[in-house]
Write a structure and sequence with these properties.
Blueprint (H helix, E strand, L loop, with lengths): L3 E5 L3 H13 L3 E5 L2 H11 L3 E5 L7 H7 L7 E6 L4 H9 L4 E4 L4 H15 L7 H4 L2 E4 L2 E4 L4 E4 L2 E3 L3 H12 L5 E2 H9 L8 H14 L7 E4 L3 E4 L9
Protein name: DNA-binding response OmpR family regulator
InterPro entries: CheY-like_superfamily, OmpR/PhoB-type_DNA-bd, Sig_transdc_resp-reg_C-effctor, Sig_transdc_resp-reg_receiver, WalR-like, WH-like_DNA-bd_sf
Pfam families: Response_reg, Trans_reg_C
Length: 236
């Protein structure tokens, strides 16, 4: 399967440099110069990874992330000229997977694209046993092979990393994971972001699954997180 990357930035020199470097690495690349064009390219090109500038005309990078909240298997790396942690947190809360501050090294960007591509690429087709596998915790049901999550039979829209994070925790109830453990397992060794990324994704998951009282995804203060023991048989 071709590895597709969409590069979105209103600065043509940046787009050209990134696209050239990616094509040399064997990626199939499309480009866009504003947020509206980016959404059109997502629909027609179906990229696995999108490199997305924050400050753009017509529709900024945050707006693109909002429109793609129900996306499946698209990894997003935000590019920003701002180095404020608040701006980075906003990007992650909007559903971005990673971020880089301009100016940046092309080699580092390529490494992050490679790591993100591995996480969003589909694995081999599931076996018949896997197709029927589900993890259950009360009204929450994770359909592992199909990568879907439902609460009270209502399908939730999760990003790839939200799904992976939830699945890891729910697959091992009562096991305590440090933030570094989860960062390594979900984001990979190459990820250069901090453990605050884990906290943001946990907050997003709690909101999406309706876990406002932190009954299912519990904070272990000073250490990390764990999932509560299932209310019913945990895996079928």
């Amino acid at each position: 399967m071709n590895k597709k990357v969409l590069v979105v930035d209103d600065e043509t020199s940046i787009v050209s440099a990134i696209a050239y470097a990616l094509r040399r690495e064997g990626y199939e690349v499309e480009t866009a110069n504003d947020g509206e064009e980016a959404l059109e390219k997502v629909a027609s090109f179906h990229p696995q990874v999108m490199i997305l500038d924050v400050m753009m005309p017509k529709l900024d990078g945050y707006g693109v992330c909002r429109r793609l909240e129900d996306r499946e298997d698209i990894g997003i790396i935000l590019l920003t000229v701002k180095n404020d942690i608040v701006d980075k947190i906003v990007g992650l809360e909007m559903g971005a997977d990673d971020y880089m501050t301009k100016p940046f090294e092309i080699r580092e960007l390529l490494a992050r694209v490679k790591a993100l591509m591995r996480r969003v690429e589909k694995s081999s087709p599931p076996s018949e046993d896997q197709k029927s596998q589900a993890i259950i915790n009360g009204a929450l049901r994770i359909h592992v092979a199909h990568r879907t999550v439902t609460v009270n039979d209502e399908k939730l829209e999760l990003t790839p990393k939200e799904f992976d994070l939830l699945t890891i925790l729910m697959s091992n109830p009562e096991r305590v994971y440090t933030r570094d453990d989860l960062l390594d397992r979900v984001w990979g060794m190459e990820y250069a972001g901090g453990t605050r990324t884990v906290d943001i994704h946990i907050q997003r998951l709690r909101k999406k699954i309706g876990d406002t009282d932190q009954e299912k995804l519990q904070t272990v203060y000073g250490i990390g997180y764990k999932a509560s023991a299932p209310e019913a048989s945990g895996r079928i």
